[in-house]
Amino acid sequence: MKTLARVFACLALTLTFTWSGLSSGIAMAQEPQFTAEFRLEDCRFKTTGANPYLILKPGRRLVLEGVEDGESTRLVITVLRQTETVSLRGIGVVRARVVEERHFAGGELVEVSRNLFAICDKTNDVFYFGETVDIFNPDGTVTHEGSWRAGEPAGDGAAQPGVIMPGTFLLGSRYFQERAEGVAMDRAEHVAMGLEVTTPAGTFEKCVRVVETTPLEPGAETVKIYCSGVGLVADNGVTLVEFGPRNAGANAAEE
Fold first, then answer.
1. Distance between CA 150 and CA 145 in Å, rounded?
2. Which of 26, 117, 161, 185 sits at a 20 to 30 Å CA gap from 42?
3. How far apart are CA 34 and CA 69, in angstroms?
4. Is 7 within the bounds of a domain?
């Protein structure tokens, strides 16, 4: 009987270690978690202001240039004078600043996006409330893939805001930047800080690196670098060549 008991004990121990190993393997295979819920109800939103890595001041402009996929690329980001409103259940109406991005490839305008950002006065987090996208195709047509707006239908529910840049940069943080099911689900992870970065626009300190991914395109990622007091200085293959104020009434059409 004692021998039989020892056999059962060994068997139970083996099963325990086997299950533990399987559980560990399952845990390791799981994708990292990203914060998807934010306490918007605690915020009073403003359309003008700044945190260390994102500046929402009308007329502010960043110009990045480089080569992507073997083609010259130019990205012009302008904080416009315009604002728009979005309506969210449980929150009400939020007014957001329009930040326009113009993307040129080979000298041709290929995409214009008008992003909606607002700053939470309590945390200095910059929230992302949607974007309107115009994609100019070679055949002359214009499509709008990736467009979304917080509070409007997306998937089985309504699109929700995400964070485009927190007021405090914490290494290892993971969060959704946009939450429009099946349309736009970009996520960010803070992977480095305290960097010094040199671009054609100058050498900057107190820089951070952010990796963006999306469950809509598994395996794809974008690496961005932001520097304190400046904002975005590198976005994959393009780097900052110019930054500063600009006439906020202009729409950068001549770029």
1. 16
2. 185
3. 30
4. no
Q: What is the pLDDT of residues 65-108, one digit of tens each?
A: 999 988 999 999 999 999 999 999 999 999 999 999 999 999 99
Cα–chain center distance at 245: 23
Contacts of 56 (CB under 8 A, 6+ apart): 47, 48, 49, 50, 79, 97, 99, 117, 118, 119, 126
Q: pTM for this one?
A: 0.85
Tokens matching residue 14: 């083996």
- The tally of domains found in the chain comes to 1
User: In this predicted model, what pLDDT tens digit does every residue of 18-49 receive, in sequence order?
Assistant: 344 434 444 445 667 999 999 999 999 999 99
Residue 156 one-letter amino acid: D
d(CA 40, CA 50): 18
Enclosing domain of residue 73? 40-244
CATH classification at residue 196: 2.40.360
252 within some domain: no
Decide if 253 is inside a domain.
no
Decide if 166 is inside a domain.
yes
